[in-house]
Amino acid sequence: MLAKNLYNSAALSASMKIGKVAFISTIGSRLIHKRPMYFDYQATTPLDPRVLDKMMPFFTEKFGNSHSRTHGYGWEAEDAVESARKNIAELIKSQPKEIVFTSGATESNNTIIRGVCDIYGDIKNKRNHIITTQIEHKCVLSTMRELELKGYRVTYLNVDKKGLISLEELEKAIIPGETILVSVMHVNNEIGVVQPMALIGELCKKYGILFHSDVAQGLGKLNIDVNKWNSDFLSLSAHKVYGPKGIGAFYIRSKPKRRIKPLIFGGGQERGMRSGTMPVPLVVGFGEACKIALEEMNADSIHIKMLYDKLYKGITSKLPDVELNGCGVNRMFGNLNLSFKGVEGESLMMKLHSMALSSGSACTSASLEPSYVLRAIGVGEDVAHTSIRFGIGRFTTHEEIDKAVKDVVDSVNQLREMSPLWNSETNSSTVDEESLKWT
């Protein structure tokens, strides 16, 4: 509740500073404007008001270009950028010089994967093999497909019903002398499963293979240590850690030195790895978000786990035939993905006017196709269509969880009463199942 009050008061203060009370159109404004409760923290997180306060001066009086080295405006901006770089590095236990700013995790993933292939790949001599998983973010999978068209070979590892990869299968997939990169995401954005990063890193080190991970979902919520993981590259995003949209970064190991070919060329900023004028306010916001995350990670984790348990137990104790998607233990507890038998997920979301949530990745949530992540963990197409993802975060309250439980239980019961599939199964009557498949 303290965090929520902090958000409301700080949001009001920030809005008054820029002369627009209507600016409070985030979490704190819900009671004023009847906005729905926010349960989509995997898609994006609200900007922490303390982050906004830190950013504001760099939109106004501190507007200098951080690459201008001949006057105070530029020096001031450069100092702010380097301070932010230090905050981000501390969060992942790296050195500031190993952090390179980008526009977000999608750009970081593209830059690293393609850049590694350009430097370390050799199609003619068969150094063109990459290993990833079937449940990576779309930006990774799409990049892999593009590389396949250019002659690279990609192994897509299966996952078990919990969403975890097999270390034995990973080791079997490695082709000594040919495999150049393993790319495995830290936390899955749809089902919240957490992969064994340190063990994967050990295997990569054993075979001399570069190791990359998209850590956008876990950054600032779970401990990340590039040295314990033997990480060579990481992709980071600000807006998943209560920072601003439009800014991200990647980590690139300096010892032993790793290299990539840049994706964007120009003025040679970021040591030649990512050209373009630095968006100083966004960088400052990213750095402040990481600083707060490092200081409050334990408190956030306790708060979120408590609300996760309350939501999960509240729903499953009142509704039969509700299944958890993903691992019950190795998961980020801000992510609760549930399947409701006999209820179409899109219909349930439309009925839950009080809640802003998703049936899967925000990048593909408009698609009517069943989630490829759920299919990969063995969830049938019909059941995949009944799934909803609940995102819990720093500013979620106990009152919101109580209301969410009530609204979900009421809505599921109402939809099941109208569902011929649910009624046929509960009444054990004969029915043409083919005619009842979701379309």
TrEMBL record:
Record-linked InterPro entries: Aminotrans_V_dom, Cys_deSase_IscS, Cysteine_dSase, PyrdxlP-dep_Trfase, PyrdxlP-dep_Trfase_major, PyrdxlP-dep_Trfase_small
Cited SUPFAM superfamilies: PLP-dependent transferases
Residues in coiled coil: none
EC number per UniProt: 2.8.1.7
Gene Ontology terms for molecular function: cysteine desulfurase activity; iron-sulfur cluster binding; metal ion binding; pyridoxal phosphate binding
Keywords: Iron, Iron-sulfur, Metal-binding, Pyridoxal phosphate, Transferase
A GO CC term assigned to this protein in UniProt: cytosol
Cofactor annotation: pyridoxal 5'-phosphate
GO biological process, one term: [2Fe-2S] cluster assembly
Annotated Aminotransferase class V domain residues: 37-403
NCBIfam families cross-referenced by the UniProt entry: PRK02948.1, PRK14012.1
PANTHER family reported in the protein's UniProt record: CYSTEINE DESULFURASE (PTHR11601:SF34), CYSTEINE DESULFURYLASE FAMILY MEMBER (PTHR11601)
Family: Belongs to the class-V pyridoxal-phosphate-dependent aminotransferase family. NifS/IscS subfamily.
Protein name per its UniProtKB record: cysteine desulfurase
Species for this entry: Cryptosporidium xiaoi
Species lineage: Eukaryota, Sar, Alveolata, Apicomplexa, Conoidasida
